[in-house]
Design brief:
This protein has about 200 residues and is an alpha+beta fold. The protein is about 30% helix and about 35% strand. It has a 5-stranded antiparallel beta sheet with strand order 1-5-6-7-4, sandwiched between helices. The protein has a two-stranded antiparallel ribbon with strand order 2-3. The longest helix is centred in the N-terminal third of the chain and has 24 residues. The radius of gyration is 23 Å and the shape is elongated.
Length: about 200
Amino acid sequence: FVPKETGQNCFIKITITHLIVFCEAEQKEELKMKTPLDCIMERENNPKMIGEYVSLKTRMSAGDAHYAGELVEGAHIVTAWGDVGTELAIRLFGDESLFVGYSEVRYTAPVFAGDWMEYGGYIEKVGNTSFTCKFFAYKWMKDSKDENGNVINGSGAEMINPPELCAYGTGTLMVAKNLQRPEFGDPKFAADAKAAGAKAFA
């Protein structure tokens, strides 16, 4: 609609093209987010898994809510993963370990007071003193609410099938060499780590 001699139509075309490319890139980034099935298949079919998948379940109480609308803060999930990592460390090295840090944390769905959560993980790689874990957070049950946001009958709840993936991440923990006591851990973890060529079990 703009005369060619102004050059403005060229600018508009370039702007629209850039916008389309940007949107496509955003869509590709969204597609990288894992689904519950992705995570389940990952842990069930991962040949790198050391030992086995471990998990804990707990209900989010009103005291766990931190934001408006009874929303639970994401840090709560990371804290729970710390406990999962501790169990994995005890099974591997017979020690509670120290958490080094996370290389990835992705939040995929909100968590509210009243939600029943599963926090789980497994060891994917073992070195000399450190080991890398994959972590997951699933929502299995939640409060049943009416159109006004009130819990039905004051105590109504419902299952979520399949469970909703709320977060996943990758973290590293470590146990100093002089603190490692694998003989007090889970034999399966030690055997898998040794078979994988872990330096700690060489």
